[in-house]
Each structure stands twice: as C-alpha cells, then as structure tokens.
Write a structure and sequence with these properties.
Number of helices of chain B: 11
Shape of chain B: globular
Structural class of chain A: mainly alpha
Order of helices and strands of chain A: HHHHHHHHHHHHHHHHHHHHHHHH
Distance between the termini of chain B: 40 Å
Number of helices of chain A: 24
Number of domains of chain B: 2
Structural class of chain B: alpha/beta
Helix content of chain A: over 70%
Helix content of chain B: 25-40%
Number of strands of chain A: 0
Largest sheet of chain B: 6 strands, mixed
Strand order of the largest sheet of chain B: 6-7-8-3-9-10
CATH class of the largest domain in chain B: Alpha Beta
Shape of chain A: flat
Strand content of chain A: under 5%
Largest sheet of chain A: none
Oligomer: heterodimer
CATH superfamily of the largest domain in chain B: P-loop containing nucleotide triphosphate hydrolases
Radius of gyration of chain B: 24 Å
Order of helices and strands of chain B: EEEHEEHEHHHEHEHEEHEHEEHEH
C-alpha cells in the first residue's frame, strides 16, 4: 500500500477553491442546494417516524375520506340537498391535501436546530456551501416528501370521486386551485418553520414557536374554506395564493438574510434580555448616553438621520400612494355614481358646512378627534406592518388615497368643479400628507427590516434600531405635523370651502 | 499557510480570543494548547470562517476569512470537536455527500474515499451505517472527511480522542505524512504527549491570549528553567555531596543518586565526572532528566495565573 504522502499531490487549491465563474450563480446555487436536499430527503425516507404518518395520510386517509364523502353525498341526496354538493365537495380534497403537508412543519422545524442538537451541523457549516445553498437545500428537503405525499393523497381521493359512484367532474380550474393552494400553504409553512429552526437553540423551543405558524395557517385555511363553499367568490382564492406566495418570497429572503452561522452555532440560550432590549431601544431613541440631551441635537443627530434612512421606504410609499390614487380614479370611471343632486345643491352643502361650523368652530374637542383618528390609523398601520413585513402598513396608508382618487374621479365625471373638493383637502393635507408618508415609510421599514437587516447587525438589533427610528420620527415629526393638521382641518379648511362655495 | 494578526473575538461582554497572532507555514504542525474555554475552538471557528473576528485579521491558504469565506472553507479540512455524523447513512454515502459538496470530479469521488478509508483500516466498513461505528471508527471517518478534498490546510480538533492506542498511532503517522506532503496543519489537543510528538511549534492559549509560542525546546528552556541532571553511583553518596558543593546546586538526593541543576551541562558534566572518579567513586549513569511538555505547560499556565493574580491585586 502506498503511503499517504505519495498519494497526495503537492499542495494546491482543490478544484472547489478555483473560481467557477463560467457557471451561472443560479445553476451552481441550485446544484449545491440539491446536494443537501438529496441527503436530507434520503434521511427522511429512512426515518420510520416520518414515513409511517406520511404513508397513512397519503394512502389510508384518502380512502377513508372517500368513504366519508360517499356517506355525506348519500345523506345530502336523501334529503334533497344535492344542489349543495358542488359547493361542498371541494372541501374534502383541501383537507386531504393539507394533512400530509402539515408533516412538513415537523421536518422543517428541526431542520437546523435538530442538526445542531445532533452535533452534525458544524461539519456542514465548515464546507464551502453558501448560506443560500444551505438554506434552500434544507427548505426543499423539508417540503418535498410531504408535498409529494399531499399530491398523491389528492390524486387518490379525487380519483376515487371521479371514477367511483359519485362520478364527480370537477372543473379543471378548481382542481388547479386546490393543488396550488396546497402547494403555497406547504411553502409558507416550511419557509416559516425553517426561519424558526435557524433562529432557535433547541427543537423544543422551535416546537413552542410553531404556534406562530399554526395559528395564522389555521385562520387562513378557515378563510379559504369559507370562500371555497361560495363558488361565485372562488376567484378570491387566486388573490390569497398570490398573497401567500409573496409571503413565501419574503420569508425566504428574510431566512437567507438573517441566517448566521455564528448565531446558529454560538447561541446556546433562548432568552429575552429585556434589559438589553430596553437599553438598545433607549440609546436608539435618545442618542449616545455620554452626551447631554438637547432638543436641537436630538433632531440633528437622531430624527433627521432617521428620516434619511427611510429613503427606500419613502420611495415605495410614494409610489403606492400614487398608485392608490390613480387606482381610485380609474375605479371611479369604472363604476360611476351619479352626483347630480349636488350639482344644483351648493346651497345645501353650504348650509351643512355652516351647521358644521356652528358645532365645531374653535372647538378643541374636534381638533382632538381629528388628531386621534389620524394617530389611531397610523398606529394600527405600524402594528399591523410589524406582523406582515410592512405590507398592511402600506395598505392602510394607501387606502385613503384610493378613496380620494375615487371621489375626485366621481366629481370630475359628474362635471362638477373639483375646486371645493380639492380645497377641502389641501389646507390641512399640506401637513397631514407628509405626516402620513413619513409614518407609513417608517412602519414599512420596521416591518420589512427583518428581511434585509444591515450586514453588521443581527435581525433583532436591526429591528430595535428601526423601532427607535419609528418612535423618533413619530414623536419628533409626525405627531407635531398631525397636531397642526388637525387644527387646520377644524379651523381653516371649512372656512376656505365655505368661502369658495359662497362665491 | 495560516496567518493571524491581532485576532480578536468578543461575544457581547465576553472576550473569547484576545489579539492572537501566529503563523503556520506549509509543512508545519502547529499545536494550540490550553485549558477548556481558553479560546481554542473559537480560534479554529474563525479560521474556518464560521465566526467573524471582532478585530484583527486572518488568512488561510491565502484567503481572507472575512472577505472570502467560501474560498477559505473550500481550502480547509476541518475535524471538529464533535464529529457529528449522520447515523442513518452508510460511510460511502456520507463521504460521497461531502465529495459532491467539495465539487470533486466523479473519478476522484469514487476513488479517494475508498483509498483513505483503507489507509485508516476502515475499508471493510464502507457500506456500514454510521450508527454501527465505534467511537474510534467515527473519529477516523471524520478525519477522512476532513482530508477528502485534499485541502492545503487542516484544522484538527482533538484528532485522536476516543481512539485506541493503535488507531491513535495510525492517525499520528497520517498527520506526519501530511506534514511531509507540505500541508499546513493546526491541531488543538489536551493530549500533551501527542502534541510534543507531533508539533513543530506550540502555542499555549489562556483566557483568549497566547501566553507562550515557540518550539518545545524554546518553551522548555524559557519556562522549565536550567536543565536538571541525574547522577547515579554504584554505592552510597558518602562524600559526593561535599565534593560537588562548590560546582553545582544539588536539588534532590536518594541513597545512591542525586540530581543537580546545570546551566551549561557541556562544561559542568565532565568536571563533575572527573572530580567524582578522582575521589574513587564509580559512576553508573549521568543523564539529563527529560522534561515533558506537561511540565512545561503547567509551568507556563502557573506563571500566567500568578501574573494575572498579581495584576488583579495591583
């Protein structure tokens, strides 16, 4: 036998170390991810604890579901309710498809943290696999067996319905909807669970956190079922699919961005360090604790830089607000409402305004009401944005602009002068709109920053900094602007409108 | 080649690695010794681009561990503290998995795992599931995995732990062969006999700092003091102590032996022999008491503990 030294060549970079620029990055990433996937899938297939439930849910459960459907169909037909069947029959394939997919949650939840517990993670992290390759490989592996099982289950179940006594002939589009819904549900559960798995220290912790996936998924499935039994509303399922798919993309993006070998290997304890959270947040809001606080310094060193950091979010918000306004305008032309009664009734409008003035002129109560309304909406947008990667924050701040576009469109369409309408918005809107744009952008950034934290920060640090920015911008700019806008809305705007209408 | 300069790693308020600087040339075995929690594993993890240094820099096989992590990991073979194998896989599947990750050509992927497994006496266990492997077999397999892609740099954490003496010898020989093949090798170990046998240079790390770095001879000279000589006579010492009083410092005596310190044995020992034989005393042996790495290591750590205590009290 030749010695080891003879077998080894002079040291050179291994083939893997040489630049492989000729291959596309995407091809290489997928190829390497699939190496991981193949190993993991093979491992899953050898684990009877995974395979037995999948086997039962794939082969046994659909047959039981067929029997159940036959009983129900008979019951409905016996009672003369067979017309309800086309609406109700699609529910069962959804259930049959969903159960095997739920296993993906179990696999995905332990994908990283399980390896960490089995001590096999470090050798894998020491290989030249990139974070994306490792992450995608494991995500695919968690998804494939349950998804294939789900498709098989649905084929068996629907095959039984189509070829059996029921002779069910579902529309192809309905079958596509059910299959795609199941697929996106699997995708969102797996991507969410892999994020959880890569951020926790034990399988137990990952399982405990799974409720954050199970609860919204249950609500989503209930919503889908409600829509499914109303055939004329089934088109809404496509919107849900798109929404879920966007969530999947955001979750993958977030997972890859916050995937951190150091954190994964180094963190040994899941703890909420409230002191650190409080300190980091307070420093973010106040600025360096070593400096004496002054309002001017706070604005110059804290609030204005926070606004500058919103640049990308501001662009997105402005585009969305513009799109909402244009969308509202187009909708007005699509669904015109007759506004003729106002055409000859300026006097009535004027009377109404006078009544309004009598009630509200110089009334601080109305100022507070206007301020509270705006503040409440922006707070809701911020909170909802946190749980939806900023999406609902965008929706909430964009809706009023859609309504404005719609109303202005209707006014124009009816041949009325847009001037009173515009003047009912512009005087206080000059301050209110910037406040909404700023608050919307801050909320969007707060919700979305976990999908792309800066390279030198962990996701939690980045989120706390964004939260500090929200508070600084909220207190330093948005609130003062909203106060002034509310005062103008109550005191100046109606007067301007009254003046124009009385001309 | 491995180069580090002022390498530092902080975990929030705790400094795990503190301004560590060293160089390991190709064809050299560098041993990193130190108590548990001294920062050895953290240093190795930085060198494999798993952890990012807080300050300082490190280059492995010419690649920067921060800027070129993928290239670093492709150039390094790592034997981790916990080898963590996939128990349901067969050895050949396991090695094929890593060979594919390292993008080895198909023919190399087929041949090299078998060659390496045979070299370490595991040729017959290739189609065995890893769950059936003994601890020692697992350790050897993990070493095969580290060598699979023929990396220019090897980082081996406790390479012979859990091995029987025969296997440990086999692995030590393999490591020496890798040195002959100009590989750059860093090992971390608590086995000081092994470190003394293998290492060309030794660094002792404590509380994240390198407190000693050099060849064994250099460290022994610096920390274990003046060489100690042992003299054995055929009879009781009788007047021997009196005869040597003005020449050497006797530190230990027995019935017919004594030990003395000699700062320059080449000059002192012939004089000692002349004087004793001149007085009619028969000498059986005169030899240097061998100092082990363990003695030197304990001395290094004790001195550093003393210095730390002194600094803290001051």
């Amino acid at each position: 036998m030749s010695s080891l030294a003879e077998r080894l060549e002079r040291p050179s970079l291994s083939t893997a170390t040489q630049p492989r620029q000729t291959r596309g990055v995407i091809v290489r990433t997928l190829r390497n991810a699939l190496i991981v996937t193949r190993r993991e899938v093979r491992d899953s297939l050898r684990d009877w604890r995974i395979m037995v439930p999948i086997f039962i849910l794939t082969l046994v459960f659909p047959l039981l579901a067929n029997t159940l459907t036959r009983v129900f169909t008979g019951f409905f037909e016996d009672n003369g309710a067979q017309e309800l069947l086309p609406a109700l029959l699609p529910l069962m394939p959804m259930v049959v498809g969903f159960f095997p997919v739920s296993i993906s949650l179990v696999i995905a939840l332990e994908t990283f943290v399980g390896e960490k517990e089995r001590r096999s993670l470090e050798p894998l992290l020491s290989t030249p696999l990139t974070n994306t390759e490792l992450y995608l490989g494991k995500t695919f592996a968690a998804m494939l067996p349950p998804l294939l099982a789900s498709y098989t289950g649905m084929v068996i179940y629907m095959g039984g319905l189509i070829l059996g006594e029921q002779q069910w002939r579902p529309p192809l589009i309905l079958v596509a909807q059910i299959v795609l819904l199941t697929t996106v549900q699997a995708l969102v559960m797996v991507t969410g669970a892999v994020v959880v798995s890569s951020q926790t220290t034990s399988t137990r912790a990952a399982n405990l956190l799974a409720s954050f996936i199970i609860i919204p998924m249950s609500m989503l499935v209930m919503l889908e079922a409600t829509i499914m039994v109303q055939p004329h509303r089934r088109y809404l399922l496509w919107f849900i699919m798109v929404g879920v798919l966007v969530t999947v993309i955001l979750l993958v993006r977030m997972g890859v961005r916050i995937f951190n070998r150091e954190e994964l290997l180094g963190r040994t304890l899941d703890q909420l360090n409230l002191r650190w959270v409080g300190r980091t947040l307070w420093q973010g809001i106040r600025g360096p604790l070593t400096e004496r606080f002054s309002l001017w310094r706070w604005y110059r060193g804290g609030v204005f830089p926070a606004v500058r950091s919103l640049r990308d979010s501001l662009i997105v918000v402005l585009i969305c607000l513009g799109a909402a306004f244009v969308g509202g305008w187009i909708a007005a032309y699509q669904w015109p409402i007759s506004l003729d009664q106002f055409d000859s009734n300026d006097e009535t409008l004027l009377d109404n305004l006078r009544t309004w003035f009598d009630l509200g002129q110089d009334n601080p109560h109305l100022v507070i009401m206007a301020l509270l309304q705006n503040t409440r909406v922006l707070l809701a947008a911020t909170i909802l944005g946190v749980f939806t990667f900023g999406v609902l924050a965008l929706v909430l701040v964009a809706v009023p602009f859609g309504i404005l576009g719609f109303v202005l469109g209707q006014v124009m369409l009816s041949g009325l002068s847009p001037l009173p309408f515009l003047l009912a918005v512009i005087p206080h809107g000059v301050l209110e709109v910037p406040a909404i744009v700023l608050a919307g952008a801050a909320a969007l950034r707060l919700g979305s920053i976990v999908t792309r934290p800066p390279a030198d920060m962990t996701a939690s640090e980045a989120w706390l900094m964004a939260a500090a920015d929200v508070i600084k911008i909220g207190v330093g700019l948005v609130l003062p602007l909203l106060v002034l806008a509310a005062i103008l809305e109550v005191s100046l705007t109606p007067r301007v409108v009254e003046f124009v209408l009385s001309l | 080649m491995i180069e580090t300069f002022e390498l530092t790693k902080d975990f929030r308020d705790f400094r795990a690695v503190d301004r560590v600087t060293f160089t390991v040339e190709p064809g050299m075995i560098f041993a990193i010794l130190g108590p548990n929690g001294a920062g050895k594993t953290t240093t190795v993890r930085i060198l494999t681009s798993i952890l990012q240094p807080t300050a300082g820099w490190a280059r492995v096989a010419g690649y920067d561990v921060v800027a070129q992590p993928t290239a670093v990991r492709a150039s390094v073979g790592v034997l981790t503290e916990q080898h963590g194998l996939y128990e349901r896989m067969k050895a050949e599947e396991y090695l094929d998995f890593f060979a594919r990750i390292y993008d080895l050509p198909a023919d190399v992927r087929r041949q090299r795992p078998r060659q390496l497994m045979e070299h370490f006496g595991l040729g017959d266990a290739l189609d065995k599931r890893l769950g059936e492997y003994s601890k020692g077999m697992k350790q050897k397999l993990a070493l095969v995995r580290a060598m699979l892609h023929d990396p220019p740099v090897l980082l081996l954490d406790e390479p012979t732990s859990a091995m029987d003496p025969q296997s440990a010898k086999l692995v030590r020989e393999a490591i020496k062969e890798l040195r002959r093949a100009e590989r750059t090798i860093a090992i971390t170990t608590h086995n000081l006999i092994e470190a003394q046998d293998l290492a060309d240079r030794i660094a002792v790390i404590r509380q994240g700092r390198i407190i000693a770095n050099g060849t064994f001879r250099e460290l022994a000279q610096r920390f274990a003091g003046t060489p100690l000589m042992e003299l054995r006579l055929t009879q009781h010492l009788n007047g021997a102590l009196e005869l040597l009083r003005d020449m050497v410092t006797v530190v230990e005596t027995g019935d017919c032996w004594l030990r003395y310190q000699a700062s320059d044995p080449a000059a002192t020992n012939p004089q000692v022999i002349r004087r004793l034989t001149g007085a009619g005393l028969d000498i059986v042996t005169l030899s240097e008491v061998s100092r082990t790495l363990e003695d030197v290591y304990l001395q290094i750590v004790a001195e550093d503990e003393g210095m730390t205590a002194h600094e803290q009290s001051g």
